[in-house]
Request: fold
Amino acid sequence: MTKTVFDLIKALLNATLLLLALCLFLGWQLFASAHDVADRLGEIGTRFVPVQTQLQRMNEEISALNLALSQSDTPDSTEMRLRLARLEEQLTGLKEETKSISELPAQVVTAAVKTTAQAFSNQIAAHLPQLESCRPSSAALLH
Reply:
């Protein structure tokens, strides 16, 4: 009887270690995939850096033009100031859109990791009750 109990304990320990190894492997694969996605999305985000730099230059040029026009009192400078104000508004909108696009990869990765982790935990929770039936009964241990 002692040998049977010892064999059952070893079997339980082996099964537990196999499940733990499987969970660790799946978790490792999950985080490796998430890391790859994050790297790719990071590369996409860095492609927007030149656009932001160009927008900054445009903003500086518009500011310089605005300063030059404010110092000028020619009759058509009022029309130019209005046009320049509209350009500044458009540039501000472009800057905000570019900023939101550059932040998008991080948001996508965060959402993907949360969704995957939730799905993974749901699958584990769904399979845990099935493992309950693998447990030997106390009557079998006593014989």
Q: What stands out?
A: The first helix runs from residue 2 to 46. The chain has a mean pLDDT of 77. Helices lie at 2-46, 49-71, 77-132, 138-142.
